């Protein structure tokens, strides 16, 4: 199946710094990518929809200025957590859909575990 | 907007016993439905999906699910559970092909398996 690669898989950063997470579709082009956040023992919550070449669409309650999303190419979307705080520590997962195939599911990356100390 | 409920937060079954995990969805049109499994600290693995056609869907690892439109349900079943099936299970609903093209996850059901 299609592969979505997320990097890094784990990151520890100091409070107040920014962290960038990359999501790449390795063998297909994705006009749309999705970013989710998962707190321990909870479900995946959709944060935003990343659209290639345009602004991301954020879900209600998600701070646009804190979680910057850039989808500059058909194979790469980035999520930057700005001025990170311990409460931002979470598991972040991206997914991407093949723009050519209309009847396929989104493929998920393996996730990035962010720890803010 | 679509939404998903999974009534059972946690289920414990004995190894070899049958399993059914419940999932109910809310969506105004025909949904795209998924079941994912997640082991602790790991990413998601797709077990099966329903887009159209036969309402009984076969997946990996011996799982199956049945789409029942009248009940807005997509329950996951397995006839004989193995200890390695212990994990978190998420039902999800999508609305692909529309301007509302995203997947929403249910709260999850944690499965424990007694040897």
Overall 3D shape of chain A: globular
- Percentage of residues in DSSP E strands of chain B: over 45%
User: Residue ranges of chain B: pLDDT <50 for 5 or more in a row?
Assistant: none
How helix-rich are the residues of chain A, as a percent range? Answer: under 10%
What share of residues of chain B is helical? under 10%
Average predicted confidence as pLDDT of chain A: 92
Number of helices of chain B: 0
**Main sheet overview of chain B:** 6 strands, mixed
Low-confidence stretches of chain A: none
SSE pattern of chain A: EEEEEEEEEEE
* Tally of helical segments of chain A: 0
Strand content of chain A: over 45%
Any idea what the radius of gyration of chain B is?
A: 14 Å
Shape of chain B: globular
Count of individual beta strands of chain B: 12
What can you see in these coordinates?
The complex is a heterodimer of chains A (117) and B (115). Chain A is 0% helix and 51% strand. Chain A is built from no helices and eleven strands. In chain A, strands 2, 4, 5, 6, 9, 10 and 11 form a seven-stranded mixed sheet that branches. The mean pLDDT of chain A is 92. Chain B has 115 residues and is an all-beta fold. Chain B is built from no helices and twelve strands. In chain B, strands 2, 5, 6, 10, 11 and 12 form a six-stranded mixed sheet that branches. Chain B has a four-stranded antiparallel sheet with strand order 3-9-8-7, with no helix packed on it. In chain B, a hairpin with a 5-residue loop joins β5 and β6 (44-50). The mean pLDDT of chain B is 92. At the A-B interface, β4, β5 and β9 of A face β6 and β11 of B.
Blueprint of the fold:
The complex is a heterodimer of chains A (117) and B (115).
Chain A (H helix, E strand, L loop, with lengths): L3 E4 L2 E4 L5 E7 L6 E7 L5 E8 L5 E2 L8 E7 L2 E6 L8 E8 L9 E2 L3 E5 L1
Parallel strand pairs in A: 2-11
Antiparallel strand pairs in A: 1-3, 3-8, 4-5, 4-9, 5-6, 7-8, 9-10, 9-11
Chain B lengths: L2 E3 L4 E5 L4 E3 L2 E3 L5 E7 L5 E7 L5 E3 L5 E5 L4 E6 L8 E8 L8 E3 L3 E6 L1
Parallel strand pairs in B: 2-12
Antiparallel strand pairs in B: 1-4, 3-9, 5-6, 5-10, 7-8, 8-9, 10-11, 10-12
């Amino acid at each position: 199946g299609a592969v979505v690669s997320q990097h890094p898989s784990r990151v520890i950063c100091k409070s107040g710094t920014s962290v960038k997470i990359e999501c790449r579709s390795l063998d297909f082009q994705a006009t749309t990518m999705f970013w989710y956040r998962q707190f321990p023992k909870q479900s995946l919550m959709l944060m935003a929809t990343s659209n290639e070449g345009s602004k991301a669409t954020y879900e209600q309650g998600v701070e646009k200025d804190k979680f910057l999303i850039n989808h500059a190419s058909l194979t790469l979307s980035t999520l930057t957590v700005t001025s990170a705080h311990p409460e931002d520590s979470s598991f972040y997962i991206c997914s991407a859909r093949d723009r050519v195939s209309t009847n396929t599911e989104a493929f998920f990356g393996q996730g990035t575990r962010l720890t803010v100390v | 907007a679509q939404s998903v409920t999974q009534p059972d937060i946690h289920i414990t079954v004995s190894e070899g016993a049958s399993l059914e995990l419940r999932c109910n969805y809310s969506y105004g049109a025909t949904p795209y439905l998924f079941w994912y499994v997640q082991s602790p600290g790991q990413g998601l693995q797709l077990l099966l999906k329903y887009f159209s056609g036969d309402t009984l869907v076969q997946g990996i690892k011996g799982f199956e699910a049945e789409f029942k439109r009248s009940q807005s349900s997509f329950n996951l079943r397995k006839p004989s559970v193995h200890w390695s099936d212990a994990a978190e299970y998420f039902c999800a609903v999508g609305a692909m092909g529309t301007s509302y093209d995203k997947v929403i996850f249910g709260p999850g059901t944690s499965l424990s398996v007694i040897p």
